[in-house]
Design brief:
84% of the residues lie in helices and 0% in strands. It is mainly α and 107 residues long.
């Protein structure tokens, strides 16, 4: 996904502001990316509760690691979307493993 330079620059400014502890910047970023990140979580995790839990974990991670994420190559939005996909895939794998273990234990 190619992002216009001014848009990428605005995204970077928001990320840096969030990395400095700005809750307002976090809110703006969340407002812009909550729908696509929820769609990703919902795609990989089959229950609404699991998707909600994944969203909480994702956005806590983004808040706590904003400085690191803002230093990565690429637009901040593509970085957060990629992070959402990795987190959702990991949560889905953990969920599958837990189900497999529960099935094995109940036999």
């Amino acid at each position: 996904m190619v992002t216009p330079l001014s848009e990428a620059s605005d995204q970077q400014k928001l990320m840096l502001s969030m990395a400095s502890g700005s809750q307002a910047a976090f809110g703006l970023i969340y407002d812009q990316l909550s729908v696509p990140t929820f769609a990703i979580c919902n795609h990989y995790l089959k229950s609404p509760a699991a998707a909600d839990e994944a969203m909480c974990g994702l956005w806590l991670y983004v808040w706590q690691n904003a400085a690191m994420l803002s230093g990565l190559d690429g637009s901040p939005w593509s970085i957060i979307i990629g992070t959402a996909e990795r987190h959702a895939k990991n949560d889905a794998q953990t969920e599958r493993l837990a189900r497999g273990t529960a099935t094995t234990l109940s036999r």
